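Researcher: Structure for this, please.
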Amino acid sequence: MGYPQGESNDPFDAANKDQPYGGQQYPPYQNPNPQYPNPPQESPQYPNPQQQYSQYGNAPYAGGYRAPASTNTLAIVSLVLAILGLTFIPLIASVCAVVCGHISRGQIKRTGEGGSGFATAGLIVGYVSIALFVVIVGAIVIFALAAANTSTY
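Model: Predicted structure, token format:
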């Protein structure tokens, strides 16, 4: 069971944090064999690795953080235009999105840039937007022709 604050059997007290645990004091070390003196209590001096191998030059760093590949700008433009094609500028922005998407995918394959997902999403949304535009305009034309051919008598 836990003890209430301030009432514990633990010999460690926060007020005596500089004292060793349990309050025990140990005498300083004395050499049992005075014939051999104690070694000096200095911190070891380590050689600088750059000074040690300076005749070979600095080796290139072979690991760690690698900067991410930059994102292709046309891929982002393709996705933005595809979204605009769905909302504000139906056909023009969608066609531009498809063109930018194909160009950016070619650039990404050639240069190894990032943004392949943006380009693919721009292509898909652009093609879907064009298809929706064609279906909606076709439906409007069919209904307009059907309404014009009906007689009112």
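Researcher: Any notable elements?
Model: Residues 81 and 97 are 5 Å apart (CA to CA). The chain has four helices and no strands.
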